[in-house]
Write a structure and sequence with these properties.
224 residues; 6-stranded mixed β-sheet; 4 helices
Amino acid sequence: LQLPVTLSVVRAALVEVAGEPDAFPLSRIDRVLRAGADRISSVQGRLQCDVDGEATGLVDAATLLGLGETARGDSTSVVVLGDEGGRVGVVVSRFLGEEDLVVRTLDPRRGKVPHVSAAAILDDGRPVLILDVEDALNGLRKALGEGTMHGMGAADAAAPARRAAKRILVAEDSITVREVERQLLLRMGYDVTVAVDGMDAWNQLRAGRFDMLVTDIDMPRMNG
């Protein structure tokens, strides 16, 4: 019989991103605000928001998490994150309030999930991801500096054409491991195809073009 010694509880701001609940630890939030059109301007195709007279770049939370794009209306919901390196505004669909969340660690077999530190269960039974603010800030600043993420664009027509995603074939006879690998690679932006064993992978390699093969060794019909 194993009993937990302590439970880790974090006070968090709940938001909705692409129809799913997510949480930002309150201790890492500079502020939350709803910005009207008069506070948002476009500079070189990027959107920025006026926060205390300071121009703060905006990025889309849905794009950051690989969930598409957030539709904008007359008022934009923004979570302002910041540290000694400066502030970044993260656009979300809407605010859901504050709540004390019991932190649940993620299954280590999934590896490091980008921009996510842990999970929790809401009172209504829905799962919620707790975002890793430090990881998100580092990733945003690196991407903005390299030009691989242009913040929340004002007009798609001005944005450069997106490069086609690299295609990866995953060969794994265990359905559990296969699905974990597929989800991890999808979150990293790859186009993923799966094969149930070595023979299936061999046939798909002959029929199509892939940039990389991730394969198990011990599989039926044909090994890795």
